Every structure is written in structure tokens, then in C-alpha cells.
Amino acid sequence: MLSIFFLRLTVFKSCFLLLRVLMTVGSLMAMLSCNKPNLDLKTTYAGSDSVLLAENLFRQGIRYKNTGSDSLQWYAQRLIRLGENQEDDRIIVNGKLLQANYEWRTANYIRAMKVAVETLRKAENNAFTKVIPTLYGLIGNLYKENENYPLALKAAEKGIRAATFIKDTVQMIKIMLNRAMFTHSYGMRKHDPELRKKGLNKYLEGLKIAESSPAYEQLRIPYYNNISQYYKIAGNYPKGLLYGEKAEALAKKYHQYLSLTYTYNWLGEIYFYSGDRDKGIHYLNRALDITIAQHAPFRTAEIYKALHKCYHDAGNAEKALDAFSRSVIINDSLQLLRNTKQIGRLQIEYQTEKKDERIASLRLINLEKTRTAGAITVGMILFILLSAFLYVQYRGIRQRNRMLADNNKKINEQSEQLNFLMKELHHRVKNNLQIVSSLLSLQSNHLSDQDAQQAVKIGQQRIEAMSLIHRSLYQQDNPNMVNMKEYVTDLVESILQSFGIDKDKFDLQLDVQITEMDVDRALPLGLIINEWVTNAFKYAYKEVPYPSLMLSLKKDREIILEIKDNGPGMTREEWEKPRGSFGVKLVKVLSRQLNGTCNMESRNGTLLNLQIPVKLEKAG
Fold first, then answer.
1. What phi and psi values does residue 349 have, to the nearest 5 degrees?
2. Strands 481-483 and 548-555
3. Which of 372, 567, 609, 612 could bond 559 through an S-S bridge, CB–CB 3.0 to 4.6 Å?
4. Which residues are CB-neighbours of 514 under 8 A, at least 6 positions away?
């Protein structure tokens, strides 16, 4: 297909530049004789010939820009080499744009950001204004991948200004979509409804421009999809259906099958949760069929995750477990593929570095020989002795430096490998704990005995507390430190949800002043919080019209945890000699494990005070 395309292009242009195009045809036919042509990029082309060749390479490469395909990297490297050979910065910028997209899509975010920033600097220095909005859009997405939403939004704003300056409405519509997505995702991350609503307004602002002309009709599809998703999350199902159906019509019209998977995903969940469960499952299965046909495993895993939730809510345990298992298997396979590609890339870089070192070594030897030959007339014997002495010293120093460099490199590699393995371990543990939690949830639905159902539910919540720890660990740069503010917030909200409590009718006060904590403290501390808060929901609020809970975690001379409810209060006898309360016993055991001092006071409710030494020592 590529050969036919270029042949037609050559015939079309031959009526204007017959002689030059005939020269180009030869190189293009050689390039297209196989899937990845073997161009001799050391050849110097005439000005218009190199531009034509670069345009063809970029046009083919841009088709793969949203994939992690090796073809994308191949076109990027050929463009960069052609640009360097022809000393054409514009060609180099286009090649590096494709290279940055490849690094992004293969999850090599640090390398992608480095290439994108270097390319942006080169484009700005050379006033290549057409590509600048695209580069800002890419940089914004890379910040978003690392959940740095403030910087992602700044990049989006710069991209919009750059697109406005060159009056590129298409780029403006695309980057305004990014800005709206970053704002909405930031609101989801912070659990901030107002910020999410601000994201909706930005969607509508960009959509207004996209709907201003039929020329931008295809650009409306992601806007319709994302607005449908917003209303689905907000529970406004009629509006979600309205925008979802608009997205479906345009996605079919323009054969945007990957976009159609998002459309069917949102429509399926809207139908399911608005009462038409069969239709909802039908739409989700249609989305699943398209992702499989389009070879989009990441989307396939997401659809299975949505199906798992729907089947679970419908009480279909077998299908729920099957969908969840398939989602986990696909995600693990994708992670393994990314790791394999990264290892291959590191091997190539290592071999290239060794080759450059050998070339540099040969140059030094040749230079030394030239200097020696020029100085033979000045004391042959003295020169040889002095040269031999210096050479031995030089070789010894260089050998020692090389040994030090090799040792440092091995240490760094081992450190990175250990860090990676720790994150992978936490990831697998989190997945296994989630499977156990899901199995307990499914089992509790089939228990008729209330005490047994409550016991299983409490056990599930303890497993969820440990699962949240491991989720936080594999998301951190340091896999031994836990983000305590995020962990405590997620844990308490998870308990609220498990007891079916509406947050709007509950006074929850969280004051977590400790940013990070090592896992040896965080895990038992999380279990203590889980037990005490769970006991509060079980016993404290049965006859309280306006329930409230205050949780404080701060560090002064000691780490201090305080949890207070406004229930009737626990008696001193129940605290000193708990007969049937396993939770109170577990709190005391975990407190001793932390070498801490734990007290209970009953004043207008129950107050738990736990003081832990800053320096962690093993309890005897």
C-alpha cells in the first residue's frame, strides 16, 4: 500500500518537477521495496529532493504517532539522520517529534520529556511556529502521565497561546481538549467537584469552537465522549446519553473505531446504572469486540474492568471474577512487554556506548603516536624512557578510573533493579489482595447469617487497608515510603463507602500533617485506624442524629494519632478488659508492635490517643 501511495504522489508531481522527481523516485522505490526501507542517508540530496523525501517520511511516520509501534521509532530515526546529513533543523525537529511520541507511548516518560523539551527549544530558536503547539500538547500529556497536573495545565495554556498566534484552529481545538481533560482529571484526583465542573466548562468552551464549522466536525468526537463521561460520573444519565449518541454517530461516520470504544463504554455504564442492565452489558461487549479487533490491549483491560464492576453489582459472581481476572492478566502482560522493550533499548544504548569508547581510544592512540614521531629528534632515549613511564602511569590511572566507573555503574544498575523489583512486588501483592477482597465481597452476598456476613465484611476491610498500602508503595518513587495523606484519606473513605454512609450527611475532619512514612510504621498504623474507625461506625452512631469523626496524625517530638467520635463513649472497663472485642485487642497488640503508648478517654464520645516514638525500635 505504501508503494502505491508514493507512486501516485510521484506521478502527480511529475507534471511540475519531472526531472527532480524522477531522481527522487529511485530513492523512494528502494525505500519502499520492503516494510522498512534501507536508505543510504549519507547521500547528499538537492534541496527540494531532501524536503520531498522528509515530507514523505514524516507523513508515513505520523500515522503511528499514537502507538508504541517500532515503525514509529524507525521513521523518527530516519528523519533525524536525514536532517543531520542535510543540516536541516526543520527535518530534525519533525524526526524528534516522532521520537518523543514513541518514547511516550512505550512509557519511557523521562526520555520522552527530555526529547520533547530539546525539540521545543530548537523549534523556538528557529521560529518553527507550526510545530510548537503540538510540542506543548505532548509535554502537557507527559506531565499528566506523572500526575503533575499544575505543570500539565501550564503547558496546555502555552500551547493554546502558540496555536492562537499562528491562527491554527485545529491545534487550538485539540489542546483545549487536553486542558479540559487535565482539569477534570485533577478534580477527580483531588475529589473536588468544583474543579471537575470547571473541567466541564472548558470542554464546552472548546466544543463551541469545534461546532462553529463543518470543517472541525471530526474533532468533536472526543469532546462528546468526555462530556458524556462527565455526566455519567455525575449521575446525570439523560445528558450522558445525549452526548454519547452524538459521539457514536460521528465516530461511525469517520470510522474512528478506538473512539467508539470509549463511546460504547460510557453508554454501556449509563444504561446499566440507569436500570437497563441487559442493554448496558450489550454496549460494553460491543466496545470489547472493537478493542480486540483494533489490537488495543490497554482499552481491552479497561473494558473488562468495567464489565467486572457491572457483573459484580448484578450479583453474577462467575462472570465478575472472569472479567476481573482477564483485566489483571492483560495489565500484567502489558507491563511485561514494556519492561522487555526497555531492556532491549538499554542493551542497544550500552553497545553503542562501548563502540564509541573503542573509537575514542583508537583516536587517542593515534594522536600519541603522531606526537611521539614529531619529538624523536629531542633526546630519543630520554623521551622513550619518559614516555614509557608516563604511559604506564596513564594506563594504571585509566584502568583504576574504568574500574571505579564500572563499579559505580553496577551499583546504580543494582539499585535501579532492586527499586523496580520492589515496585513490581508491591504491584503483584496489591493485585492478589484485591482478588481476595473481591472473593470475600462475592461470598458475603451469599451469606444469610448477619453475624457471619459482618465478620466477612470486616475481614474484607482489613485486606483493603493492606491493599491501599501496597498501591501507594508501587506508585511512589521510593517503594519503601507511603504517602500518608493520600493513604489515610482513601482508607477512611473506603470504610465510609463500605458502611453505605453519605459523606454529605457526615462530619469528617481529617488532619494529616505527616507527608510520608516508612512501611514498617504505616502498615500497623493503617490497621489501627481501620479497626478504630470501623468500631466507631459499628457502635458509636446508632442513636446519634449528626455523626462526626475527627482524625489527626501529626509529628512533634513523637508521632501522635488521635481519633474521636461523638457517640455515647466506651467505658473504662470495656477498654481495660475487652471480652468480645477483637478490634480493641488488635489495636493494643499493634500499638505494642510500634512500641507506642495507647490510651482511651470517654468525653462527649470516645477519644483514642496513640503516641509512637519517632525512632522505630522492635518491640521486645
1. -65, -40
2. unpaired
3. 612
4. 484, 485, 553, 554, 555, 559
CA angle 135, 140, 146 (to 5 degrees): 130
pLDDT tens digits, one per residue of 122-147: 999 999 999 999 999 999 999 988 88
Dump strand ranges (E) for 408-543.
Answer: 481-483, 507-512, 516-518
- How is residue 560 written as a grid cell? 501522635
Q: What is the pTM of this model?
A: 0.50
Determine how β-strand 548-555 pairs with β-strand 516-518: unpaired
State how far the Cα of 570 lies from the Cα of 589, in Å rounded to an integer: 19
Residue 460 amino acid letter? Q
CA atoms of 369 and 363, how far apart (whole Å) = 10
Q: What is the arithmetic mean of pLDDT over 185-195?
A: 91
Distance CA 343, CA 334 (A): 14
The strand pairing partners of 602, in sequence order, are 606
pLDDT for position 465: 66
Q: How far apart are CA 140 and CA 120, in angstroms?
A: 12
- pLDDT tens string 445-484: 666 666 666 666 666 666 776 666 666 665 666 677 888 8
The grid cell for 287 is: 466496545
DSSP conformation class of 441: H
